[in-house]
């Protein structure tokens, strides 16, 4: 039977979570200049550069890995002078696209990454019970056929993910070699 879920209205495309992974950086900057390419009727699509300081230095991060600090402790930290840059940035991202776990959070975040692993274009799924994302992945795989597009399930029974994309109701990671 079909599951009745609210429509997806707000989508973000993240690039530069790791400042030295340039595919997402290039695409986000391109879509910031040419937004019509990603806009769809009835939907807000926002391209967003997640870690601009690391992008500018072309390094993975400045103080700590942005893709690991979206946990309650870091998101709730008091902003003081010596707070790590990425923790402060995570709080900003959570404010814009979240708050994480709330009804106000963005519906979908695509977080674009590069990898040195020989895995080609791979979609990352964090929750095997997320029916919407599973159906979307099925659609993407069919649309890309005959190109190979594996889906990697990184679900863990007790781990709550602290990834950049975990702010959204439906987090999606996309990795390219």
From TrEMBL:
GO terms for CC?
A: cytosol
The main place the protein resides is cytoplasm
Task: Tell me its cofactors.
Answer: Zn(2+)
Localization per record: Cytoplasm
Keyword vocabulary terms for this entry: Cytoplasm, Hydrolase, Metal-binding, Zinc
Which parts of the sequence belong to the Succinylglutamate desuccinylase/Aspartoacylase catalytic domain? 8-171
Extract one GO molecular function annotation from the record.
metal ion binding
Top-level taxonomic group: Eukaryota
The family note in this entry says:
Belongs to the AspA/AstE family. Aspartoacylase subfamily.
PANTHER family annotated for this entry? ASPARTOACYLASE
Protein known as: ACY2 Aspartoacylase
Identify the species of origin: Herpetotheres cachinnans (Laughing falcon)
